[in-house]
Amino acid sequence: MAERERVLSGVQPTGQATLGNFLGAFRQWRIQQEEYESTFLIVDQHALTVEHDPAALREGTLQMAALLFAVGIDPTRSTVVVQSHVAGHAQLAWLMECTATYGELSRMIQFKDKSRGSAMVRAGLFTYPALMAADILLYQTDLVPVGEDQSQHIELTRTVATRFNHAYGDIFTIPRAVIPPLAARVMDLSHPEAKMSKSSADGQGNIYLLDSDDQIRRKIAKAKTDLFNEVLYVEDDPARAGVRNLLEILAVLTDREPKDVASNFVRYGDLKEATATAVIEQLSPIRERYQDYMGDRSQLVSWLAIGRERASEVASQTLSRAYDAIGFLPSKEVTYGD
Ligand code: AMP
Ligand code: TRP
Hints:
338 residues; mainly alpha; Rossmann fold; 3-stranded parallel sheet; binds adenosine monophosphate; two-stranded parallel sheet; 2 domains; Tyrosyl-Transfer RNA Synthetase; globular; binds tryptophan
């Protein structure tokens, strides 16, 4: 049998995960783990690129693990790893920093967005995409399921991997992004021109995966719509972004096309009601499982240890090949990558 293709993706353990994370990423991961050899990273090292609180980072890392398992990532099937547990990420990142160019990193939209207006921009925020490239390439990844906001980083990963392979030999698999056809960019409910984001200021337009049923209903009821007063799915019209967002959310959750969903509604109120019901149906079992997992921390820790073990094997192989190719003198005493 041919080897299964490899899937890899990652999430930062900071802030509370949103419906955007679920629809853009976690839901795809849950489906893809059935078919592909899958690795999911909790990227604690990426979380250092902006101001952070050490205790919150530590707790957030465990909480994110509980959440991924609660969403349905199966620890017997998939490898769930904390990035800092496998040294190869940081080690390969340096090689990537010395393969990517300053110009390439300067063009990253996420860097521009996150650094804007900040007086103390950490150097790691600038080199962030090199670490992300290392995450992906370390596991010889074929497919990277992510929301749309990450596509530029994956394009850069492909460029850097191709450059490395040409310069030093065929070391890395060239990965492809997998962006979901719908809800790849879930928008903020109060400001539908902006992405729903863990780090948004007031959070009123965010549905968090651990929100209560009441909170979900309230936030969706208050979602910004428009004055057209007709439930229509219109792509690329900024004036209709709010209704489009609700239609996409409901369409994905009920496995239909947004245009068909739209034809079932006349009033915005009914669309909101149905969307809230569908979201609650998805999220409330996740919330319950999350509480169960958080109640047994030693189980979480031991699943993460198994993840580390499995991940280290591939990571150390790739890293020693990359070190060798780039011209580092091998040392008999050192094992790289794990
Ligand atoms: P992050 O929250 O930045 O760690 O993102 C983790 C994953 O969730 C990435 O694959 C993102 O592309 C995805 N994601 C985050 N926010 C959204 C959103 N509003 N819509 C769709 N996908 C998202
Ligand atoms: N940069 C991604 C985000 O903010 C997280 C991430 C880090 C990632 N390493 C990755 C995603 C590797 C996919 C593959 O969402």
